[in-house]
Write a structure and sequence with these properties.
The chain has 5 helices and 8 strands, in the order H-E-E-E-H-E-E-H-E-H-H-E-E. It has helices at residues 34-37, 63-79, 139-151, 162-174, 180-186; strands at 43-44, 51-53, 60-61, 86-88, 110-114, 155-160, 202-204, 211-216. The two termini are 25 Å apart. The structure holds zinc ion.
């Protein structure tokens, strides 16, 4: 039995997050004209049975962001039917702009997403993303979401705590789902060069043990690969 980490009934405001550590090295230059075009229009994340929003007023993203999230939950529903809804934290305000305590989340291109766990207990929630030890991670479902995000080719990066990255990377290797070469491109060494500029990258950031942060590219809505 998979446990949802939270239910819509108990989802409350997120606590302060000291997060959104910016990448030390840009993987690739922005492909679009977001900066030049700002302020562009953000769109409201549609309601869905496949996700739970913590704060509807902070659920505004670029069309690419909304489409990427929809793609991820649709693929999760297809390949992992019966999964609990994805927890969607802050994206951006309707008009964008500063969204403390985040350092990003000002332009609709960043979103915080909950991780899947084996035993999320309601009393552990404290109104936000429950903190998970790596051993509590539902690796298969969490990776399914990350993989679906990356497969869109629209992800600039995903930030996650290194302990979770290590668990996921180890599982992908042990189960033969990825080769060491593939893993090196997806999860670069923290001090090394990385090169997965085609489809995105996953890297460590402090304070991301209870959620992942996904950053999408600028640009037009692309055709996404099928599920
Ligand atoms: Zn974030």
């Amino acid at each position: 039995v998979y446990w949802s980490l939270v239910s819509a009934a108990v989802a409350g405001p997120l606590g302060p997050l000291v997060e959104d550590v910016l990448p030390l090295v840009e993987v690739s230059a922005p492909t679009g004209t977001c900066d030049r075009d700002w302020p562009y229009e953000l769109v409201r994340l549609p309601t869905s049975d496949f996700w739970v929003e913590f704060r509807p007023e902070h659920a505004w993203g670029t069309p690419v962001m909304v489409h990427v999230l929809e793609h991820a939950v649709n693929r999760l529903a297809l390949h992992h039917p019966g999964s609990p809804p994805l927890l969607v934290g802050d994206i951006a305000r309707e008009q964008g702009g500063a969204l403390p305590p985040h350092r990003t989340h000002d332009d609709g291109r960043s979103a915080d997403i909950g991780l899947f766990g084996w035993s999320g207990r309601v009393e552990d929630l404290h109104g936000g993303f429950p903190r998970l030890a790596p051993s509590q991670l539902d690796v298969e479902r969490t990776w399914a979401v990350m993989d679906a995000l990356l497969a869109t080719g629209e992800v600039e990066h995903i930030l996650l705590d290194q302990a979770h990255i290590d668990r996921i990377r180890g599982w992908l290797l042990e189960t033969g789902r990825k080769t060491p070469d593939e893993l090196a491109r997806i999860f670069p060494d923290r001090d090394g060069m990385f090169s997965w500029s085609m489809t995105g990258i996953v890297r460590h950031a402090p304070n991301h043990a209870d959620h992942l942060h996904v950053r999408v590219r600028c640009g037009e809505l692309p055709p996404f690969p099928g599920t």
